[in-house]
Amino acid sequence: MKPSIAVHGGSGTLPSSITDAKIRIMYLNALQEALDEGFNSLKSNASALEAVTKAVCILEDSELFNAGKGSVFTSKGDHEMDASLMDGKTLQAGAVAGIKGIRNPILFAKDILHNSDFVFLAGVEAIEFARQRGYKFLPQSYFYNQHRYDQWQELKGTGEVKLDHSHKDESTFGTVGAVAVDNDGNIAAATSTGGMTNKSWGRIGDSPLIGAGTYANNKTCAVSCTGYGEYFIRGVIAYDVSCRMEYGGVNLELAAENSVNNRLKNIGGEGGLIAVDAKGNISMPFNTEGMYRGMKNDRTSFTKIA
Hints:
Largest sheet: 8 strands, mixed
Structural class: alpha+beta
Low-confidence stretches: 165-173
Distance between the termini: 25 Å
CATH topology: Glutamine Phosphoribosylpyrophosphate, subunit 1, domain 1
Radius of gyration: 17 Å
Oligomer: single chain
């Protein structure tokens, strides 16, 4: 089954607009484009780390998802983005939180992995590192989206926040991610998000946290999560899947299902994840109404929403 790749674009309550065939096709096409980009790179003998980075970049460049260009507005009316990725072969990881103006946060996380002595950078100092690395900072107009702006206007000044997958908002989904295994049997995971609408106080969710929203280890699996971040952090869900495999001796599917439908659900969490092992097996469980997801290998390719 090698090589294999899976992607997600968020989990939660399906928006009523998804019944519109044109809108549904837009989401599915975006997922397919990410799958194709990542899988083609795998077929060209690229590493799993390169493949998941390319796949997530495609989703960050789409306005459909809450990451990169489609990021939601904070309480201050700007955009703060988080991202992380991990190499299952070396256990190296790179992560960033609270950055602004960078088109593809996942590329910056990858830069942190390869070109710093650290794993996780955040805020204004992370931005300074990005400047030293030669990143171009885009104007806020690049990230402007009327729908996202309207979402913010509903909450502006209230102190309330809203997650894309929340039952309070059936309009859009969010966090994006990818997992892959390459021709050499190495695996990797990547996750990127714009956080929650009207967020304040420097809130950071699970997406940039290694072990909570992203994890990869060649001995077990690569995982990218999506959902209510606080619960994924409390349950250390991405690492939990790996632990079930390493210490419990269970296969990928059982480990992923138990993490989402037992551990996460039992503490009140909603969401899902995508995961792959070194053999190319893929699991994509979720405990919400739907999850934007897709997978591709030499034998199978599909994208789904519900």
